[in-house]
Specification:
Blueprint lengths: L10 H8 L5 E3 L4 H11 L5 H9 L1 E3 L12 H9 L3
Antiparallel strand pairs: 1-2
Helix pairs in contact: 1-3
Length: 83
């Protein structure tokens, strides 16, 4: 028997969390955009992160990568750093 991951959070819960951020929240990434980022950079967002980025894309802070319009070299550099 294997343990299953909990379901991702509801969109409404994520949006209330985003309201607490000190960042502008722009329209979220579509499924197609999320898939394109994953394919381009060779990784997979966790289910929670996909819901978070679909609910809204934080912008205006160096802390949050701009997955929609960010510089590909900057994004690649961020991904190469340890978490």
């Amino acid at each position: 028997m294997t343990a299953q991951s909990p379901p991702p959070p509801a969109l409404e819960s994520v949006r209330s969390l985003q309201d607490m951020l000190r960042a502008e929240i722009r329209p979220g990434l579509s499924k197609r955009e999320l898939n394109a980022v994953e394919a381009r950079f060779g990784f997979t967002f966790s289910a929670d992160h996909r819901v978070f980025l679909a609910a809204g894309l934080p912008h205006g802070s160096r802390s949050w990568p701009d997955w929609r319009n960010g510089d590909p070299e900057d994004l690649a550099e961020r991904l190469s750093q340890p978490v």
